[in-house]
From TrEMBL:
Residues 16-176 form the N-acetyltransferase domain. This is GNAT family N-acetyltransferase. SUPFAM superfamilies: Acyl-CoA N-acyltransferases (Nat). It comes from the Bacteria. GO terms for molecular function: acyltransferase activity, transferring groups other than amino-acyl groups.
Length: 190
């Protein structure tokens, strides 16, 4: 028997650890995806535990298929999983996405997801070498829209949408300028 080793980095911020999904995260993920909060990511109250498990397996397996994926966001002080955030690119999507979800309302309003998303953006535009990414956001998800704007993303009404997401808003993240870009170096024109 042979296996595939997948390296999933761990990102650290002042208050958070972003790490690989683990089986112990499944109960918190299931509670989120099967709740009304899960409707923004394809779940909702009608979601079965089996479907939630398959969705969790999908985000976990994405790392092996694409070399990037969704991190579980945990608090440094408690180790408790509070959400998910990561750079990913599902197979039928037109662009790479920076995605985030706060799993429970008790963790909103503390800046956790902004902190996590900044670390993910640095990872996407640094080690992963991305030069742009989007966030696909449901029009009625005011908190996610506000976070995208807080992160400096701008609406991109001309961007292509994933299949079946006709009313989704697209916010564009751009890589930060490098010193050579700002100086007008040749790298800026490559």
């Amino acid at each position: 028997m042979s296996g595939t080793a997948v390296h999933i980095p761990t990102l650290h911020t002042e208050r958070l650890i972003l790490r690989a999904p683990e089986p112990r995260d499944c109960p918190a993920w299931e509670a989120f995806l099967c709740s009304d909060r899960g409707r923004f990511v394809g779940g909702g109250p009608e979601t079965t535990p089996g479907r939630a498990w398959r969705a969790f397996a999908s985000i976990t397996g994405h790392w092996a298929l694409r070399g990037c994926g969704i991190f579980v966001v945990t608090r440094r002080d408690t180790g408790a999983p509070i959400g998910s955030c990561g750079p990913w690119f599902p197979g039928d999507w037109p662009e790479r996405e920076i995605a985030w979800s706060v799993w429970d309302a008790a963790h909103e309003g503390h800046g956790y997801m902004a902190e996590a998303a900044r670390a993910v953006l640095a990872h996407a535009f640094g080690p992963l070498g991305w030069d742009t990414a989007v966030s696909y956001i449901a029009p009625d998800n005011a908190r996610s829209r506000a976070l995208a704007e807080r992160l400096g993303a701008i609406p991109d009404p001309d961007a292509a949408l994933p299949p079946g997401d006709g009313d989704t808003l697209v916010f564009r993240h751009r890589a930060p300028e490098t010193d050579s870009d700002a100086a007008g170096g040749m790298e800026a024109y490559a």
